[in-house]
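Input C-alpha cells:
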C-alpha cells in the first residue's frame, strides 16, 4: 500500500493541477515570499520569458517530435542532457536543470519521508480534493478541457501523475532522483501550451485571458494542492509536527521555482500561503460547462475497476473533502446513507490508523480497499505500474 500510494498520491490532482492553469489573481502580496527580493510586476502578468519564445520556435519549426523522442531516456537528475535536440533547446535545459541556491537538502529529504508516512491521506486529498477542486477553477477547467489532453482524461492522468510521483519519492531532488528533470519537462509543456492554446477557437470563445498559465496561475494551483492539503491535515487533527510542515512547504517552494515562478512571489510561510490563497483561490471557485464534464469524466473512470464502494459513496467523499456546494455545482447525486457513514467513520479510521484509538472501526477495510482501488485506477491506466513519459503537445483538442 505504501509504495502504491506514493506512486499515485498526486495523480488525479496533477492531472488537473500543475499540468493545467488556474484562476486570475487580484491581490497578490509578495511580502513573506521565499526570498527577500523586492516585488516587481504582479505574477498575473508574468509568464516564462525564457521557455516561451524557445518553445514557440520549437513548435513552429517542427522540432517537437524529435525532442519527445530524444528526451524519453532523460529521466534521472544526474542523467546527461538529451542529445539529438536543437542546440538552443539543449542550452536552455543546461541553464534551468539545477536546484535554486536556497534549496535545503535536509528539508527536502524530510519532506520525502513525510510523503511516505502520510501517503494515504495525501492520496485522498490530492485526488478527490485538489483534483476535483480544479474543475471548479474556471480558467483551469477551460484550459485543460481545450488542450490536447482534455479529450482523454485517463490518458492525461496517466501521463501527468509522473510529476506527483517524482515529487513524493525519497531522494526526489538528489542526483539519482527524478523530480528536477520532471519539473523541467513540465515547464516546457507549459510553454508549449501557452503557444498552442491561443490558437484554439474553442478556447478563445470561452476564456477571459489571452495567454494561459501565468505565474499567478501556477501559484493558484499550488494553493489548490499544497495549501489545501496542509489545511485539511490540520483540520483532521493528524499529527503534523512543525518540522514536517516546514519541510512539506519547502518541497513545494522548490517545485514552484522549478516551474519558473519568480522567487519573490512564492510564499515563505504557511501563514503567507493561507493569506494568498484566501485572496486569489477561494473567491473564484465556480462551475463551468467544461469543468462539470471534466469532473464527470474523472469520476466516471472509477466504473472500470471495483472500488468496493458505490458511486454514491464516491460522490459523498468528494463532498466531504470539498463541500456540498462544490458537489451541487458538479451535479454529484446525493447518497445520504454514505454521507452519514463517511462523516462518522472517516474520523474513526484516522484515530485508529494514528494509534489514537485502540478500536478499529468496522468500516476500516472499506476505506482501505477504497484507497487501494483508487490508486490502482491511475497506476498507468490501471495496467503496468510504470510511469508514463511526459511529452510535449503539438496541437489542441479538436472539438
Amino acid at each position: 500500500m505504501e509504495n502504491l500510494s506514493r506512486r499515485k498520491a498526486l495523480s488525479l490532482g496533477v492531472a488537473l493541477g500543475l499540468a493545467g492553469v488556474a484562476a486570475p489573481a487580484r491581490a497578490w502580496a509578495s511580502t513573506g515570499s521565499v526570498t527577500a527580493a523586492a516585488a516587481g510586476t504582479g505574477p498575473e502578468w508574468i509568464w516564462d520569458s525564457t521557455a516561451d519564445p524557445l518553445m514557440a520556435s520549437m513548435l513552429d519549426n517542427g522540432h517537437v517530435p524529435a525532442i519527445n523522442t530524444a528526451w524519453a531516456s532523460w529521466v534521472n537528475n544526474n542523467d546527461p542532457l538529451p542529445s539529438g535536440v536543437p542546440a538552443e533547446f539543449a542550452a536552455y535545459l543546461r541553464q534551468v536543470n539545477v536546484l535554486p541556491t536556497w534549496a535545503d537538502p535536509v528539508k527536502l529529504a524530510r519532506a520525502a519521508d513525510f510523503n511516505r508516512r502520510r501517503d494515504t491521506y495525501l492520496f485522498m486529498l490530492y485526488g478527490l480534493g485538489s483534483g476535483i477542486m480544479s474543475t471548479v477553477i474556471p480558467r483551469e477547467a477551460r484550459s485543460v478541457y481545450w488542450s490536447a489532453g482534455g479529450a482523454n482524461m485517463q490518458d492525461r492522468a496517466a501521463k501527468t501523475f509522473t510529476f506527483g510521483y517524482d515529487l513524493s519519492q525519497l531522494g526526489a531532488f538528489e542526483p539519482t532522483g527524478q523530480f528536477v528533470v520532471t519539473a523541467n519537462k513540465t515547464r516546457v509543456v507549459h510553454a508549449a501550451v501557452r503557444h498552442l492554446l491561443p490558437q484554439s477557437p474553442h478556447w478563445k470563445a470561452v476564456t477571459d485571458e489571452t495567454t494561459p498559465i501565468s505565474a499567478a496561475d501556477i501559484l493558484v494551483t499550488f494553493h489548490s494542492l499544497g495549501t489545501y492539503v496542509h489545511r485539511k491535515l490540520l483540520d483532521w487533527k493528524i499529527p503534523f509536527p512543525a518540522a514536517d510542515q516546514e519541510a512539506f512547504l519547502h518541497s513545494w517552494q522548490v517545485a514552484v521555482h522549478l516551474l519558473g515562478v519568480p522567487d519573490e512571489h512564492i510564499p515563505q510561510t504557511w501563514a503567507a500561503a493561507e493569506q494568498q490563497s484566501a485572496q486569489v483561490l477561494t473567491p473564484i471557485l465556480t462551475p463551468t460547462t467544461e469543468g462539470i464534464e471534466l469532473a464527470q469524466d474523472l469520476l466516471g473512470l472509477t466504473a472500470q475497476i471495483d472500488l468496493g464502494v458505490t458511486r454514491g459513496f464516491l460522490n459523498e467523499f468528494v463532498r466531504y473533502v470539498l463541500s456540498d456546494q462544490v458537489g451541487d455545482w458538479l451535479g454529484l447525486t446525493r447518497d445520504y446513507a454514505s454521507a452519514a457513514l463517511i462523516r462518522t467513520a472517516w474520523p474513526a479510521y484516522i484515530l485508529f490508523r494514528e494509534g489514537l484509538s485502540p478500536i478499529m472501526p468496522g468500516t476500516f477495510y472499506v476505506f482501505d480497499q477504497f484507497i487501494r482501488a483508487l490508486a490502482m485506477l491511475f497506476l498507468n491506466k490501471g495496467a503496468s505500474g510504470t510511469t508514463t513519459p511526459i511529452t510535449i503537445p503539438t496541437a489542441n483538442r479538436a472539438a
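Residues 1-31, 379-385 have pLDDT under 50 and may be disordered. The two ends are 39 Å apart (CA to CA).
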